[in-house]
Please model this.
Amino acid sequence: MKKIISALLCLAMVLCLVACGNAATPSSSPAEPAASEPQAPAESSSAGTEKPYAGQTLVVQVWGGTYEETFKTYAAPMFEELTGATIEYVLGSTPIAQLGAEGENPSVDLIHGDAAEIVRGEEMDLFAVIDKSKLSNAADLYEKAFEYPEAIATNWGTYGIAYRTDLVEKAPTSWFDMWDPQYAGGKVGIMDLGMGGALEMADVVARTQGYECADQENWDNLFAKLAELKPNVGILASQHADVEAMLEQGDVVMCVETNGRAINMMRSGLPVGFCMPEEGVPAMTSYIALTKHSHNLDLAYIMADILISPEVQKAYAENNYYAPSNSKAEVAEDLRGFMPYGEDQVDLLVYIDAAAVEAVKPAFTERWNAIYK
Amino acid sequence: MQYQVELCEIVKDYKSFRAVDHISLGVQKGEIISLLGASGCGKTTTLRMIAGLIPPTEGSIKFEGIDVTNVPPYKRDVAMVFQNYALFPHMTVFENVVYGLRNRKIRDKAVLREKAEEMLSIVQLEGSESKYPRQLSGGQQQRVSLARALIVNPKIMLFDEPLSNLDAKLRVQTRTEIRNLLKQMNITALYVTHDQEEALSISDQIAVMNRGRIEQLSKPTELYNHPKTKFVADFIGQANLFDGVVEQAPDDELCLALENGVHLHCSSASETAANGEKKSVLIRPESITVSNQMLQTDNVFPARIVESSFLGSVIRYKMMLDNGLPIKAELRPGNALPSESGQVYVGFDREYAILVD
Amino acid sequence: MKAKTKGRDLSKDWSYVNGWYLVIPLIFLVIFFVAPLCYMAYISFFEFNGVGKPLGDFTLSHYKEFFTKSTFWLILVRTVALGAASTILCVVLGYPISYKISRMRGRWRSVLMALVVLPLWVSMTIRMFGWMSILSTNGLLAKTLQSLFPGRDIKLLGSYTGIMLGLIHCGLPYFIMIMVGPIDNVDISYEEASYVFGAGFMRTFFKVMLPLTYKGALSGAILVFSLNTAAFLVPMMLGSGKIIVMTNTIYQQATYLYNWSFASALAVIFMVFALLITSLSRKTGRKTGSRSDLA
Model:
């Protein structure tokens, strides 16, 4: 009897955690290969006695892995040197739901997010409207960086197709190369909803049909096309690591991927190529936003200013292959090909209408689940 | 004549330990043989090998002349009464009793019921069919366990210390009942026990075991009166045992010279005692006469009483012979010494002083 | 006499101690388990206007949505079927192992027990990555099967087979751990008696061992069933996102679509079903148990 009760407790506990969407699920973070922590920012605290914000702590959410690494190596020391304050990290994806639940006492001051998360956060009134006058670097940013009033775009990556150069006969040039019947039997990896790259792919497909992915009148058409891909789909990835492992094993020969992660795979010696398809290259924009009720808003602005400074932007470009949003950030010639460098390139990217998508997401999800699951 | 069950040179080794060491034994149809010995002597191991629960390392086992060494237990047609009864706790008495019959493909409900009733009435448990083992006393459980074994009319029935969990009185009563039942039904049985009294009362023959070997296989009276070895003599009943060297007395009778120079007139069952051989002599305490007067027996020694204890049916005297040997004697209360102090005489005839190996 | 009085006092003390030290776990359970659970059930009956915003009107629409849409039914059935099938296999595979371990003594027993528990020390994600590489088309298992059945397209990753293997892998250690005790409690003489009285291996198992251990087996099975129906990482990682179960659906609703009320309704429905199934299996288990007692 006791065993049965405890078994039920276990079950209920798991359900409860899942339902609340708390941190109990490690899968939600786009885990990147763990990186050793570079240059611990230790010395700053000793020098911090005369600094204006000495003794204060800024809580920053940042994606774990290489993104976090660049943050800690370049941005954090600058910030601590300047302010004397220390940074506390929250690693993983944007804690939108958590911030919503926390209301006027947010546990994070500065967050990183993608377009969908920024839209969702704005809808929930989580973020402060950006006051450009508090940012010394604001004037140097491209116009596109301020698309949303409550967020700043810090850099751009792109979604494209990563493929195994040794396992495909012809390198893909089009999104629809993924539809090729020769890849039937699950040779293609795509992203699942909830991961960047899923809606973006659907968006490009919709655009070839003359619509955007949020346009419901086109959905029959759109999902018919997406359904055609099903025989080729080997994985609907919920974490990058999963699909990358399958690409490495050769289970899939191509997959939707970001430029940065594809280049990392190339650099690690895998026979991987990256294609920016001809129909359009969806933008993967990294935004930062400041929580509205943050008690450290001034500090958060300083951090934000550092993140859009040419130095830090250059570091992200060189280490993560993300194109800067600051026009003053100079990136070495040989690296520019890996990213949408320069304002014209940035403007050429396909931007998903995150707000419109947000409104139809439940219905979209239902149809997506219906064809792929 | 063919044995019902025959063990030929059975050996059982456990890693570095030899539990059973070349045992050979034949059991006649309808015979009850006990394996008697202290714990660890290999008696239970032997029993389990006959049941087929463990395979022998060497040797063979034959049932009615047919080799069954490699036959699994469920095809051997044996039955066993366990020390802890091993009644299936989730089955009723009825189910327990007919378990063996069901496994022998007897499906007819009426037959099963009739047989079970018969067996339960034999063990005097009529009407307990629908009870569960836990609702019965230890003695009743033992009877059910007996009924479960009797009902299959096995080639051999194996008893593994079946009475050791019962109280002393019930033990005595049950063992007579078991013997009567087995004899009445002409069932061959092998009975493992460490209780010599039990073995003596229940068996046709007793095999005394020591260190994985059979020391002696004899009828109970023979075993008691003419043990072959010192071990058996000491193990069964009370014993006075003295070591010495065999000498031929002038009158051509046997004599044992003890270490301290005392000579004992004795007899030998085996007639093999040769001069100079090292032997022991057994004198049962009840064969000894003690008196305040001089005695006319073959062996007489003056002694002093060290201790006496009244045990109900006998009085036991511990004495010291004047020549330095300690000796025990048991007298019936009617023959008690008038005086326990001072000089007494201890005497016994040569036929009660038995040479053993 | 004195000892007796003392003994009685002691037992009285103990009952007080029992009462008091239950308070802390009870408080813990209420705060961290009962309360969230009740809140979850509560919000499933209201319109959800967004995270951090007040709940809307009372509604049964979330439940209605579930019960009127076959897709959700299908997901529930799939979840339960996967859980049940993997549980059955865990029982079938785990029982002999538990049996062997519980009949062992000494060092080997500890070694084997440690081997059984060892996988639980490794993070689930890492274990699942291991399975991904085993199940991958170029992995060990698929390659072996491919050579055994040439010409057949063997796809393990992203298939029900893959998920089943993962679920069995996760449930087996728990089942074995639970099962060793009950089997150990069955004195070996019962088995020996069965053999001696003419029952073969199968008969001994079904007539003696199983009835004497079915309660333990049922507890183990219910635990494994609970764990496996509530599994999240296994279907996600080994199902390659192509096979969705209740947990994934709830997760999607809660963290991607931010529809907490519907997610809660799903969780409540899921829990009710799981409870129903476990209590049902307990009842039938008891029935068959008692039947074998009387038959």
